[in-house]
Amino acid sequence: MYLLRRLTEEFYLFLRPMLFYFTRKDPEKAHDLLVNASKFLRKTSLDNLLLRYSHDKKNPQIEISNAAGFNKNGEIHPQFLRYLGFDRVVVGTVTAESWSGNPRPRIKRYVKKESLVNWMGLPGEGVDRVAENLSAHGSHEVPLTINLASTPGKTGNYLLKDLEKTITILKYLPYIDRFELNISCPNIADKNYYLIDLKDIIKCANENKSSQELYIKISPNLGISEIENICEACMEFGARGVTISNTTELIYSYGGTSGNELYSSSLETQKLFYNFLTKNNLDLDIIACGGINSLERLAERKKYGANKIQVYTPLIFKGPKLLRELKIA
Ligand SMILES: Cc1cc2nc3c(=O)[nH]c(=O)nc-3n(C[C@H](O)[C@H](O)[C@H](O)COP(=O)(O)O)c2cc1C
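That is the input. Now the predicted structure with flavin mononucleotide docked in place:
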């Protein structure tokens, strides 16, 4: 069983140059291939055979989930992602209405830098479709987080109503025990969230959810006053913590950068956040996200308060081997 996992990991690394070559004009096609492969492997139970491995239970484990954007509409079966190595699955960003996002291609791959730039613009099939997809998966072993935002274009009360709709439809579905509010998408034109008080957004989510924990996903380019405001809003309206971070728009002018090149800014924001929490004796969780591609980086993120991590871009470059190696931390 374990041997097959190792072979699958090596096979991915062997396949990767061809995969990157044939999808170089539209890297999103590689993701489409993954979605289709996951469906086939789940249907035939081959995912169990090819991907499963035993976790080392002796070591204290840090929760690892995929980051948002990897399973936008919940189309990848959570059990497949469990076999791949995730302890939790993040679905979304989910919006109340369907939204096409920007025209393709909308991702660029920088292979040597092990980074991606995306200007997706929050495409999604809308909450009704996501609910159908998740219900169709049936039973599995994985807790789910819903990452959500309002449909681009909504402002003021319409924005809050939009969030309310998404939460109301999803809150009673099984396995969903966490909501993550995406207030940091760098590539939507109107940047709704800067027009409305963060407190109103957190309050709205808190009042409409059921027993789920609430997290806020933030940008990697924040100053200390913004961090103070976020902490204050989280404490006042019952958010459990923050995910640090989304992509950064400060490296390439045309989109949000993820992966290796994001690591340092994401870490610096985490340090600011952690120092603020420690200084003020505040109890908020930190989920670290952004360029975590090695055990050393995982250890660094843990040192500055992270007790959970999320991974997306490093998985594309390192393959499933990365998830197994991070488990040994
Ligand atoms: C193609 C792509 C699409 C993404 N879509 C979303 C999204 O819909 N919502 C969100 O909150 N973050 C989204 N992200 C950001 C990731 O969730 C994550 O915060 C970021 O990529 C940093 O982590 P990484 O370096 O492990 O990729 C997306 C990232 C990529 C590369």
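Residues 67-69, 72, 93, 107, 116, 118, 120, 122, 147, 182, 185, 217, 246-247, 258-259, 262, 289-291, 311-314 surround flavin mononucleotide (CB under 6 Å).
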